[in-house]
Input
Amino acid sequence: MDVYEAIKQRRSIRKYLDKPVEWEKVSSVIDAGRLAPSSGNIQNWKFIVVNDTDKRKELAEAALKQVWIETAPVLIVVCAEPVTAGRFYNNRGEELYTKQNCAAAIENMLLEATELGLGTCWVGAFEEKMVKKTLGVESKVEVHAIITLGYAAEEVPEPANFPLEHVTYFNGWMGKIKDVPGYMGWQSMKNPARIEKAKEVSKTAGEKAAQAGKEIGKKARDIYENIASRIKAKKEKQKIMKEYEKIYGK
Output
């Protein structure tokens, strides 16, 4: 599976099979997070792997009682050390770059899990103090996310995403061109199947439109001929009446 395919197939899974995840896969997912980009390559993240049943239950409670979380056999809690970023980038490093770094690591892990046939969900709604207490996290460390990991017990449909032209500007805010997908080569490079389907749909629609045009044309001709016939009959009647009046008077 290539990266783009993994991006397309990734879903937020909230139902898991009662099946353990092989450690080789867990470690591969974590390693994908380790290899993510970070500001100045400071890598100020830490990943806590949780497979203990009681701790998973406590984390589910901390996550606003989202009990489904504990059904995932593995949880990966993504933490950060903002002070490290602050040394190099001051407040912006602590408040922004740290979040960006962790987000990049999280997405890497989600995509690697998808490639390995695993389901995940990025959970951000939780009481941070409760998570820290459960896992013994130091006060100076931030908790940014809980990632659920396991074999999916549900099939989630493809979400509705905005089209490319809706989210893309050129050379400035609100800078637009007419054909964003075509300009970016998105059609031929990324979605050949979709393009073929679109061509088929277009062809079918064209054929239907042509047939509808023929039918409309035929109906129009029939209406025209009917009107012309009635006009002709009226004229013939008027002509006969005039001849009658000449002979017999009004």
Observations:
- Residues 192-248 form the longest helix (57 residues).
- The longest strand covers residues 142-150.
- The chain is about 55% helix and 10% strand.
